[in-house]
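Quick check before the chapter quiz. The format below is the same one you will see on the exam, so make sure you can read both the input and the output lines.
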Amino acid sequence: MIQRIIPSSGEGLPVIGLGTWQTFDVEDTAAYPQLEAVLSHFRQQGGTLLDSSPMYGRAEQVIGDITSGMTGSNDFFYATKVWTTGLLEGTRQIEASFHKMQRSVLDLVQIHNMVDWKTHLPQLRSMKERGKIRYIGITHYTDDSHEELEKLMRKESFDFVQFNYSINARHAEKRLLDVAAELGVATLINRPLGQGNLFKSVQGKVLPGWAAELGIDNWAAYFLKYILAHPAVTCVIPATANPIHATEILAAGKGNIPGVSLQRKMLEYWRNL
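Here is the expected output.
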């Protein structure tokens, strides 16, 4: 799989990660074999980053339960978030994430939706200095948040920023992606498939013949390759609990990446369907 560099460290990161909102929030362990199949295929194809949050119900626990029994569990890049107010509650929540995900070190802890960031950021910096976490991030998921994210990125130091971007929600192209590149902040892209709504727009539609030049043979790969065409995108984190869908998603991380002109061509083709 193609990798891009985390600017603050120079470490390579595979361009396709895996979100876990809803898909890994399961109560019944009977769902575990299918999720393990997704994770195994994801890892075999070169994916590493798993993005979760205390907001996602049991997702952190399910990740920990499944990966702890897998060969190569240490090869994953474990990312989660702090999503509460107050120093005490934040500390408790982060410690609970270590326990649920069964990790002694977390690769990335992000401040979810910028909630009480002034309280959590010093705590995360202290944990990073002590080697408990490797990277620090800040997140949101709406266009309206982009201006505030930019302000925080310019004011404070973050390794990662996570926000929404897709072929039908391109607000990040106006400034935020360029700002991240300017400041040397790695980007995680959420809602890359428009929460599944993009597939409705192409139902019954055929891919253009030239998509094969990019190694694209399904619409998920088409939409994700459009995002990866922007050089400031570090990693895209679609979510799935379906091994077949995982195969389609992972295809976007291989082969050629579109240049600027081809990215425009992809947009126009989709618009004219």
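If your answer matched, good. The chain has a mean pLDDT of 96.
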